[in-house]
Amino acid sequence: MADEFAKGLGLLTGAGLIWMVLAGWYKTPSFEGAQLTGSPPGELSMLGELAIVFLESMFWLAIFGALLFWVGVPLGRELYAKVEGE
């Protein structure tokens, strides 16, 4: 169980750090307004557009990756043990 917790925590912190860095670059228009949640600039190059896609994918990887290892894997093991025990 500690292994799944470490994997989920690693995904949450690693993907969350990447999300925070990219959101700071692309979604923080000023320090007085919305930070990390503002809208991205309109005129982006192809690399900027790829960074926005990567930013959004890191957000969802952090959320669903942690849920997978903290809830999904233990639940799957419990269900498998229950089916094997019958």
Provide a descriptive summary of the structure in words.
This protein has 86 residues and is mainly α. 76% of the residues lie in helices and 0% in strands. The mean pLDDT is 91. This is DUF7314 domain-containing protein. InterPro entries: DUF7314 (IPR055738).
What would a concise description of this structure say?
With 86 residues, this protein is an all-alpha fold.
Explain the layout of strands and helices.
Elements: H1 2-26, H2 46-85
Which keywords apply here?
86 residues; mainly alpha; 2 helices; 0% strand; elongated; DUF7314; transmembrane helix; transmembrane
Radius of gyration from CA coordinates: 18 Å
- Provide the structure class: mainly alpha
Q: What can be said about the biggest beta sheet?
A: none
Strand content: under 5%
Oligomeric status: single chain
Discrete helix count: 2
Helix content: over 70%
Distance between the termini: 23 Å
Number of strands: 0
The average pLDDT score comes to 91
Low-pLDDT segments = none
Structurally, the number of domains stands at 1
Shape: elongated
What pattern of helices and strands is seen along the backbone? HH
Organism: Halobacterium bonnevillei
Protein name: DUF7314 domain-containing protein
Domain DUF7314: 1-84
Transmembrane segments: 9-26, 46-73
